Amino acid sequence: MRLSSVFSIFVAISIGVLAGCTGGGASKDEIVFGEYGSMTGSESSFGISTHRGVEMALDEANAKGGFNGKKFKVISYDNQGRSEEAVTAITKLITRDKVPLVIGEVASSRSIAAGAIAQQYKIPMISPASTNPKVTQLGDYIFRVCFIDPFQGKVMAKFAIENLKKTKAAILRDIRSDYSVGLADFFVKEFKAMGGEILVDTAYSTGDIDFKSQLTNIRSKKPEVIFIPGYYTEVGLIARQAKELGLAVPLLGGDGWDSEKLTEIGQDAIVGHYFSNHYSQEDTRPSVQGFIEKYRARYGETPDSMAVLGYDAAVVAVNAVKTAKDLTPASLRDALAATKGVPGVTGEVNLNEHRDAVKSAVVMKVAGPKKYSYVTTINP
Amino acid sequence: MQAFIQNLINGLALGGVYALVALGYTMVYGILQFINFAHSEIFMLGAFAGLFVAVALQDVGSTPVVVTAVVFASMAACMAVGALVERLAYRPLRSAPRLNVLITAVGVSLLLQNAAQILWGATPRVFPTILETQPLWQGTELVLTNVQLIVIVVSAVLVFGLSILVNRTKLGMAMRAVSFDFDVSSLMGIPTDRIIVFTFMIGCSLAGCASILYGISYPKIEPMMGVVIGMKAFVAAVFGGIGSLTGAAVGGLVLGLSESFTIYYVSSTFRDAIAFAILILVLLLRPSGLFGVVRKEKV
Question: How far apart are CA B29 and CA B102, in angstroms?
Fold first, then answer.
């Protein structure tokens, strides 16, 4: 008994050591980027889609010959949708794998947590889809290839008032998510500025399953629209429970809704509601349709925004490698800061002085299982 | 007034699920004086068992058949796992100090959680709609759905059935005897090991049933789903007086109602804080819980 337990400890240690040896050590003919994301957990579709977009962009760059005979590669870690795991993942990428550039995350809370580490080590980080303004305010090494929430909040406020002609709104925000709290605040500000009225502003926490009390509260105030800037898992459940409680007003949300899982969880309760997004599948531009076609051929699914933004992030990273004077993190940072006119899926990517991309937003309507229809485009 | 009743309904439906899970904690505590922390994972496994059967039976049109099959599959799976856990993890430690069993229970809980993550992944799955949610009664400010009514009624029936089982049957009498004095009941010819397994299985079958009620109401199934429910149910059991069946049932309902009313009248941010403040207050005034009996340590 004792001998066997000593033996098992020995085995455990040696496995650990061996596992430690396999990671890291980029070879000389490769340029290795790091990536961290939620490959599992409640927001797993964010991480998986982003990773697919990144892979596609890097494979295309490699097919065109890579860079000076070097191939692009990405090391990707799962953070299970948890901020503390995101910090571990990015620390591992920077200190053990010694990557010169990191791509991640979708959720703003995790980008903020991990971005602080990237800034501390002075390794450039490109967030594909975090829209909270705080992300790039962390420091001069943090970039993003999507629009930010002050704009997204304005888009939905404008849409509610001008397109839907609704002036009385209720807010249901995720109090534990920086993204949700930020987006809700910007929506409230813009909605009031445009003459709208917020009847009730209530909250839930990530991971909650029962929202009936909040919805009962909202129902008693009789709003004309409900703004729910959360992530798709909770939004799906909220939509179901809203329907059960007989709340029949439009629900509005942000890009956190964009996942094939939204309609899987929300079923017919989520159909007919609206959210702002980074791109539309119905966009007829060849860059968009070409991307959708290639993505479908490779993964058998229609890409969501996270795939598009993952692709854009990787394209911007590759462009930085090509335009930088050398491959040190500091030079890559300077090259990223100068990003202008890089061809992304939804048009040229230009980064402004705040290291944020300037892009237009689309409003989508949930049309059926895994189907959204394009409603309108709103420009910055 | 309608809002008050609406919150009452919402809270009862939520509390019913807590109550069923809390009963499992309290039954095992009553008989073995330790907290079976793995109980919340049995709840989770029950939900997965139900999910798989529901997916397999998706083409069978008849709702009653599917619901019955799913509920029984889940209860059976939970009973099997409960019996297995008792046999492999707890029985070998029957004469060991209680702390050892407690640590083992935590270990079993982590083992099941991680095994489920490896097997099925951490990504939440959607519980198929085996029962269409429909409003039974709809006022301007008040809705009662069929699912809410079913959760409340099923919980009540199970709690009632359990109290009959424990208080009116021979098996129940044996359970109470083992709970009262393990050694003496064994001297009286009661097969104590078998009674303990039965107790585990009954507690686990309630968790299985609760997991299906949960799956129908909140169709999001994942390996970590037991953690929060388990903690709430454990709190409910302690609040009601651990070891007391009535206590667990009442504790579950009080917790569900307090959450529902706190969110409505105060704020969702304070939901757990207020629920736990109530718990602390009750325990300060009645250290053995609402319905708990102060037990003298037997010498």
Answer: 11
Q: Is the pLDDT of residue A293 over 90?
A: yes
Whole-number Å distance between alpha carbons of B184 and A41: 50
Which residue of B lies nearest to A172 if distances are taken between CA atoms? B268
- Structure-block tokens of residue A241: 């429970």
CATH architecture of A10-147+286-349: 3-Layer(aba) Sandwich (3.40)
User: Tell me: the pLDDT tens digits for B56-92?
Assistant: 998 877 788 899 999 999 999 999 999 999 999 999 9
Which of A172, A206, A211, A212 would you mutate first to test chain B, the one with the most B CBs within 10 A?
Answer: A212
Question: Range with the lowest mean pLDDT among A12-21, A68-77, B81-90, B258-267?
Answer: A12-21
Q: Which CATH number fits domain A149-277+362-378: 3.40.50.2300, 3.30.420.270, 3.30.200.20, 3.30.70.260?
A: 3.40.50.2300
- Does A265 lie at the interface with B, CB-CB under 8 angstroms? yes
State the nearest Cα–Cα gap between B204 and chain A, in angstroms. Answer: 22
The pTM (predicted TM-score) of the whole model is 0.85
A window 187-246, beta carbon within 8 A of B: 202-205, 207-210, 212-214, 216-217, 219-220, 233, 237, 240, 244-246
Dihedral, A351, A232, A83, A361 alpha carbons, nearest 10:
10
Query: What Rg value do the Cα atoms of chain A yield, rounded?
Result: 22
On the 0-12 / 13-18 / 19+ scale of CB atoms within 10 A, B280 is: exposed
For B60, the token pair is 């069978």
Domain ranges of chain B: 24-224
Distance (Å, whole) CA A142 – CA A124 = 6
Mean pLDDT confidence for B159-179: 92
ipTM of the complex: 0.87
Residues 6+ apart with CB under 8 A from B283: B238, B239, B289
Burial of B286 (0-12, 13-18, 19+ CB in 10 A): middle
Among B10, B220, B262, the residue with its CB nearest the CB of A212 is B10
